[in-house]
TrEMBL record, chain A:
The keyword Translocase does not apply. InterPro entries: ABC_transp_permease, ABC_UrtB_bac, BCAA_transport_permease. This is Branched-chain amino acid ABC transporter permease. It is a multi-pass membrane protein. One of its GO terms (cellular component) is plasma membrane. Belongs to the binding-protein-dependent transport system permease family. LivHM subfamily. Its main location: membrane. The keyword Transmembrane applies.
Length: 295, 418
């Protein structure tokens, strides 16, 4: 029983990491239909922010806390820069966007290499997050994982509340549901796009901060992770926050349970097969957005 | 405004995902070795002779391989300052293997045919060595490989200056057996070294009444270890034998500590973690854990004091020295000894000089002798314990240099492995 519980928690924590990465994507890809291949590098930018802050400020705990808002802004601004310079001009050409952002991703990776050096770097975790919490005598959960889970849940709650209640959120939803109608109603859709992209990219930065607690920081750390995050968004249903959350946790739990009984590689294969089968059955994903838009 | 329907964008993403996965797995194939013929040409015109340094300076293995490159350069500088080899200065040409095996093969070919080097020093993972092995054999050029490995190999064009299994893994297992550990859990990166090493460990365990309770592999560079650690913990094994490589170790040991496992409750014996890795993983995660090597920074002796001092003077007082660095440093001196004995840089003459026997060097790890028959070297096995200061102190050694036995012919339990 303890084993099942601790494996369940492992699954949830894998899901939380996935969710943090996928949240940003669910905005830029899900809501705006932009396939941003450089999303992984925005994650790395967030992680390197922690690294830099830790060099400047000595306290590991303090630098992690300060890194959260700073990484959000750094990655967000980087995202806006990409949007203004490139993506904005390519909204009607999704495949070109894909190629262009892939190029951006390669350029950013090289920039990280030149600035921070090619070898991966590590940060020190604050002492409060290096230990573990004993739920029972046998059931031990890692406190950094709990931190990531809480961070992911807070991010989801903030994003949901933001989209539901704030004027900006209403504008974002309006543009997503019917861009033309939103435009003729007087909404500056371009500005809404930019803000959406800022928030989506900023969330990637937050994910980067969280990932420094799990493993090393490197120029290609994000690329290895965004594939699964894209899958989460697609399976959850394009433009559906609810779907993203459910699928991230389900995928995490399935992955950890299958991995426990088989091996890492077999688990990845099985998860992939399950996803392909699911998309055959429901190509539109778990949830679909119903609008009266003709597109 | 154009919008992609969900179905189509999903298809695009699936295609992209498949592509990215392929790239991430390093599944690309490159046809590298193109030239063939009799013997590599070595450029000995001029006052210097080139040698190649082939190490991963980027990617997941850079954590370990950059330090090997640094100590190779130290040895070359020392030799040059003392007058060079056969009156020629050594000019190193450094190439980045990028933690990617086909790249290693490409760069090896470049060093041999374009730079016309006399020998190449480098490679860390067995996957990279296996990738370059045909290149060196085809071009009849020399590789000096400085890292402990899984044995069961003997290329006529490779000199192995790191430990083979009977100089590292087998003594490590002997040590665990002597400590009364009767069950093991095997954790490793998913490539040739850990898989072969674990095959050997399982054969040893079966013959020595030890139980292997589980065996898990993570992709090289993987940072998700919570499930593997849960499995290790649930198995209740007496010890863990760790063959993870690169910075996966960082994630593994962080997870190991968070799961409440310690060196006291379930010790981990690592064969790819040396002083440099201890520093980057974090001493708090590793203190008390065991390692199996042939050299530590703390190994006594005048030769080591000189090496450590020279290394710190060149690269910084906070830089530790480690076994692969020492084996790399030693490999340059061994090459020099062979060339001087042969009186030539020519590969076949150098090989003949080594085969004739008697190539020795007072290395930091102690006196090493090249075994001309196997092109491996005699090494003393040393088990160490990671201290709170991040240095490793020896808790046991084999007393004398062990004769290399890459195919484990002297061990009855190992029949059938090679």
């Amino acid at each position: 029983m303890t084993l099942v519980l601790s494996q369940l928690f492992t699954g949830i924590s894998i899901g939380a990491v996935l969710l943090l990465i996928a949240l940003g994507l669910s905005l830029t890809f899900g809501q705006m239909n932009v396939i941003n291949m450089a999303h992984g590098e925005l994650i790395a930018a967030g992680a390197y922010t922690v690294y830099v802050l830790q060099k400047v400020l000595s306290g590991a705990g303090l630098s992690l806390l300060i890194a959260l808002p700073v990484a959000f802004v750094v990655a967000g601004l980087l995202g806006v820069l990409i949007e203004v310079l490139l993506i904005r001009r390519l909204y009607a050409r999704p495949l070109d966007t894909l190629l262009v952002t892939w190029g951006v991703s390669l350029i950013l990776q090289q920039v990280f290499r030149d600035v921070f050096g090619a070898p991966n770097v590590q940060t020190r975790a604050p002492s409060a997050l290096t230990g573990s919490i004993h739920v029972t005598d046998d059931l031990v959960i890692s406190s950094s994982r709990v931190f990531i889970l809480v961070l992911a849940l807070v991010a989801v709650a903030a994003l949901t509340a933001g989209l539901r209640t704030t004027p900006l959120g209403r504008r974002i939803r309006a543009v997503v549901q019917n861009r033309d109608l939103a435009a003729v109603s007087g909404l500056a859709t371009g500005r809404v796009d930019r803000l959406t992209f800022f928030i989506g990219s900023g969330l990637a930065g937050i994910a980067g901060v969280a990932l420094t607690l799990v493993g090393p920081i490197g120029p290609t750390m994000g690329t290895n992770l965004i594939v699964n995050a894209f899958l989460v968004v697609v399976v959850g249903g394009i433009g559906q926050l609810k779907g993203t959350v459910i699928v991230a946790f389900t995928l995490g739990i399935v992955q950890s349970m299958v991995e426990y009984t088989t091996t890492v590689s077999v688990a990845s294969v099985i998860v992939f097969v399950v996803i392909v089968a699911f998309l055959q059955w429901r190509p539109q994903g778990l949830f679909t957005l119903r609008t009266r838009s003709l597109a | 405004m154009f919008r992609i329907p969900g179905r189509r964008s999903a298809a695009i993403v699936a295609a992209v995902a498949a592509f990215a996965t392929l790239t991430a797995c390093g599944a690309k194939t490159t046809d590298s070795a193109t030239t063939s013929g009799a013997g590599a040409t070595i450029d000995t015109s001029g006052s210097s002779v080139k040698v190649g340094l082939l190490n991963s300076l980027s990617g997941t293995m850079a954590i370990s391989e950059v330090t090997v490159r640094d100590s190779l350069k130290l040895a070359i500088d020392e030799i040059n300052a003392a007058g060079g080899v056969l009156g020629k200065q050594i000019a190193p040409v450094s190439e980045d293997g990028g933690s990617d095996w086909p790249t290693f093969a490409e760069k090896a070919q470049k060093l041999i045919s374009q730079d016309k080097v006399a020998a190449v020093f480098g490679c860390w993972t067995s996957a990279s060595r296996k990738a370059v092995k045909p290149v060196f054999e085809k071009n009849k050029s020399l590789l000096f490989y400085p890292v402990q490995y899984e044995g069961l190999e003997q290329s006529p064009y490779i000199f192995y200056t790191g430990a083979t299994t009977n100089q590292q893994i087998v003594p490590g297992l002997d040590y665990l057996k002597a400590q009364g550990k009767t069950s093991l859990y095997l954790v490793g990166s998913d490539y040739v070294f850990p898989r072969t090493a674990n095959k050997i460990i399982k054969a040893y365990a079966e013959a020595n009444g030890m139980k292997v309770l589980g065996e898990d592999y993570a992709p090289l560079g993987s940072t998700e270890f919570s499930t593997i650690v849960n499995k290790v913990k649930a198995s209740g094994a007496a010890a863990v034998f760790n063959t993870l490589n690169g910075d996966s170790n960082v994630a593994f040991f962080k997870e190991y500590k968070s799961a409440g496992l310690t060196a006291a409750s379930m010790p981990v014996v690592s064969v790819s973690i040396a002083e440099e890795e201890v520093k980057s993983i974090g001493t708090q995660y590793l203190a008390g854990q065991l390692t199996a090597w042939n050299y530590y920074q703390t190994t006594p002796g005048a030769a080591n004091e000189k090496f450590v001092k020279a290394y710190k003077a060149k690269y910084g007082a906070d830089k530790p020295t480690s076994d692969p660095m020492e084996a790399a440093y030693t490999s340059v001196y061994l090459w020099k000894a062979m060339v001087e004995k042969a009186g030539s840089f020519e590969v076949e003459k150098v090989k003949a000089a080594s085969a004739a026997g008697g190539i020795t060097y007072d290395a930091p790890e102690g006196k090493v002798t090249v075994d001309g028959a196997t092109q491996h070297i005699f090494k003393t096995a040393r088990i160490g314990k990671v201290g709170d200061d991040g240095l490793i102190t020896e808790v046991w050694n084999s007393g004398e240099p062990i004769k290399p036995d890459p195919f484990l012919k002297g061990y009855p339990w190992a029949t059938g492995l090679s």
